[in-house]
From TrEMBL:
Organism: Chitinophaga polysaccharea
Keywords: DNA-binding, Transcription, Transcription regulation
SUPFAM superfamilies: lambda repressor-like DNA-binding domains, Periplasmic binding protein-like I
Presence of the UniProt keyword Cytoplasm in the record: no
Stated name of the protein: LacI family transcriptional regulator
Pfam family, one: Peripla_BP_3
Coiled-coil zones: none
Entry GO MF terms: DNA-binding transcription factor activity; transcription cis-regulatory region binding
Source organism superkingdom: Bacteria
SMART domains linked: HTH_LACI (SM00354)
InterPro entries for this protein: HTH_LacI, LacI/GalR-like_sensor, Lambda_DNA-bd_dom_sf, Peripla_BP_I
HTH lacI-type domain residues: 4-58
Length: 337
């Protein structure tokens, strides 16, 4: 059924759209007789007001944007749930934009926001993102970075304890007897990737273990390319422990181990940064660094709405770190402390 618009009501009643709008909003400028005619026809045709049109007239869209690299990752799925829990309570709509790990696509999305389509933005950047474009966005609208942040841009940031989490993961492998440990990283640029690498290296140093020449493997965005990369890296380095810093890389490790006929955890102990609810059902079940995705999404949205409510709220100064947790399962040998 075609949506009934103010213009359609105006044409049927031979009135201006301005008169229809004022009548629907009980304006004192409209006579009672005209108002009743408009309301009667609106009821007859089941007219439903367009919240977007109304909000645009007020120079507000009652909509926020969430820009993320992908939705397949369970972290982002949970984070969106946290964001929407807050947005629904505030009466706002949420638009999800996918950058697909492409900085140019991300830039196109950010430019689209200049039209006033959204009131504020929550963003988790790509593996390729630089400060270009983001600084202008922060000047134009309330913006909160979550999880993947751009350190060069002064803005509100909600993160987790990435360095500490990687340190904890490395220490857990060491406690299980690992001495040749590798780290699989998603990016040389991402702040969270660099912090996880720092925590990994610090744990090896503190336990007087060597950093192997190829201890950190920088991976691709494509699954097929990563499969070949990891297969070669595993054979060349003879790791006895591996930390996968993204969910997709955790899955890739299992696939490569199956192809090489390596047993987990007997030949290779594995820890993954993952929020997969199915991690406990893998064979063997996967030891994970589980991030507080829902809480991070909720915290980011809460900050954004505080800024939307008050122009005086110092949004750019807000920083919050929410701790992650290590959940020991059967892919490692050490017991969780």
């Amino acid at each position: 059924m075609e949506n009934v618009t103010i213009r359609m009501l105006a044409e049927r009643l031979q009135l201006s759209t301005a008169t229809i709008s004022k009548a629907l909003n009980n304006s004192h400028e409209i006579s009672e007789e005209t108002r009743q005619r408009v309301l009667a026809l609106a009821a007859e045709l089941n007219y439903v007001p367009n919240p977007y049109a109304s909000s645009l007239r007020k120079k507000a869209s009652n909509t926020i944007a969430v820009v993320i690299p992908e939705v397949a990752d369970s972290f982002f799925a949970e984070a969106i749930n946290g964001i929407e829990a807050v947005a629904q309570e505030k009466g706002y709509h949420v638009l999800i934009y996918l950058s697909h790990e492409n900085s140019q696509k991300e830039q196109t999305i950010l430019k689209d926001f200049q039209s006033g389509r959204v009131d504020g933005v929550l963003i988790s950047v790509t593996t390729e993102t630089t400060a270009t474009g983001l600084e202008q966005l922060v000047r134009d609208k309330p913006v909160v970075f979550f999880d993947r942040v751009c350190e060069e841009v002064k803005a509100a940031k909600i993160t987790t304890d990435d360095a500490t989490a990687a340190y904890r993961a490395t220490t857990h492998l060491i406690a299980g007897g690992c001495r040749r440990i590798g780290l699989l990283s998603a990016s040389r640029q991402l702040s969270i990737s660099n912090k996880r690498a720092e925590g990994f290296q610090q744990a090896l140093l503190d336990h007087q273990l060597p950093l192997l020449p190829n201890a950190i493997t920088y991976c691709y965005n494509e699954s097929a390319a990563n499969y070949q990369l990891l297969k070669t890296a595993f054979l060349e380095n003879d790791y006895d422990g591996i930390i996968a810093t993204t969910e997709k890389l955790s899955t890739a490790v299992y696939e490569v181990c199956e192809a090489l006929q390596w047993r987990i955890p007997e030949d290779l102990q594995v820890i993954g940064f993952s929020n997969l609810s199915t991690a406990r059902f893998l064979n063997p079940s996967l030891t994970t660094i589980t991030q507080p995705a829902f809480e991070m999404g909720k915290a980011a949205a809460t900050l954004l709405f505080r800024a939307l409510k008050s122009n005086n709220f110092p949004l750019q100064q807000q920083q919050e770190v929410i701790p992650s947790s290590l959940i020991a399962r059967n892919s490692t040998l050490a017991k969780d402390k």
